[in-house]
Design brief:
Helix 1 (2-9) runs parallel beside helix 4 (88-94) and helix 3 packs antiparallel against helix 7. The protein starts with a helix and ends in a 10-residue tail after the last helix. Strands 1, 2, 3, 4, 5, 6, 7, 8, 9 and 10 form a ten-stranded mixed sheet that branches. It has 286 residues and is of the alpha+beta class. The protein has one domain (2-38, 76-203, 234-276): Dihydrodipicolinate Reductase, domain 2, CATH 3.30.360. 30% of the residues are buried. It is built from eight helices and ten strands. It is globular. The longest helix has 20 residues, at 235-254.
Length: 286
């Protein structure tokens, strides 16, 4: 991922104005209209502790250990579950900051659970010499088909096996953070490799013998805890990224476009305010 950030910032695909990100989630139930039946609490589970600040309700295996993601009381749907992973690279590379607005289309959202699919557009302002950016998120399945961006956004490239597309005025990058693979396609439709290989590193790496890339992230995290320097994915990046992601759910749940005052954490729509700061159950307030 760090290498992809370096390439985007080096200008290999030029000035980026369009980003598309997607997931095959939810792979758990969403669009639910009723709570599941009550079940006996397992002896190994402190149910009240698991609920934490969420509203008190009965135990069900349709909540724990996996399916809680789809329920609004406990999770944030496919968007909140996956976008912090998938939006991370473009958000970081383009230094997007607070979005100006977000607007969602969706199918199946209920008061209890997230939608079966959604398409969410985030609008970001210009940043210095960088132009405004439209980022579009896709999840779930529509009409029995994977909810993906049109192939045209990547010059007709097959998007299977990838998770994001960044469109610049010099070319396009298709990226997958899980296998850290990407393609950079020039405006002529040919893949660019030579410039990519000659672009120098600009971000730090954890270099320890016998440490894999994934384990290096853990080492950097532990070093941060020990006061040995700030990780690249510090709270200063992770906090605003998470806020940006979850802003999409304000539009999903209200059905309206939301203009966003990032510094004040205030939506333009009063009906959305209750989703920014929820009420905590008695005894769990901070």
């Amino acid at each position: 991922m760090r290498r992809a950030v370096e390439l985007v910032r080096a200008g290999i695909i030029g000035k980026v104005t369009e980003v598309h990100v997607w997931t095959n989630r939810p792979i758990w139930p969403q669009g639910l209209t009723e709570r599941p039946p009550k079940e006996k609490i397992p002896e190994s589970l402190d149910w009240d502790l698991w609920l934490g600040p969420a509203p008190k309700t009965h135990y069900s295996s349709n909540y724990v250990p996996f399916k809680w993601r789809g329920w609004w009381d406990y999770g944030t749907g496919a968007l909140g579950d996956m976008a912090c992973h998938i939006m991370d690279m473009p958000y970081w590379a383009l230094e997007l900051g607070h979005p100006l607005s977000v607007e969602a289309k969706q199918g199946g959202n209920t008061e209890l659970a997230g939608p079966n699919w959604s398409v969410i557009k985030y609008q970001f302002p210009a940043r210095g010499p960088q132009p405004p950016v439209t980022m579009t998120w896709y999840d779930g399945r529509k009409n029995g088909q994977a909810n993906l961006p049109p192939r045209e956004v990547a010059g007709g490239q097959d998007l299977r096996g990838y998770e994001s597309v960044l469109v610049g005025d010099k070319g396009t990058m298709v990226f997958n953070r899980r296998s850290t693979k990407w393609k950079i396609i020039g405006r002529d439709g040919d893949e660019i490799r030579q410039i990519e290989e000659s672009t120098p590193q600009s971000l730090s790496r954890v270099e320890q013998e016998g440490i894999s890339t994934n384990d290096a992230n853990h080492v950097e995290w532990l070093d941060g805890i020990k006061g040995k320097g700030e990780p690249l994915s510090a709270f200063s990046l992770a906090g605003p990224l998470t806020e940006t992601v979850l802003l999409g759910n304000l539009s999903v749940r209200t059905g309206e476009k939301i203009d966003w005052d990032g510094p004040a954490m205030k939506p333009s729509l009063k009906a959305a305010e209750k989703y920014v700061r929820r009420k905590y159950r008695k005894g769990w307030s901070l």
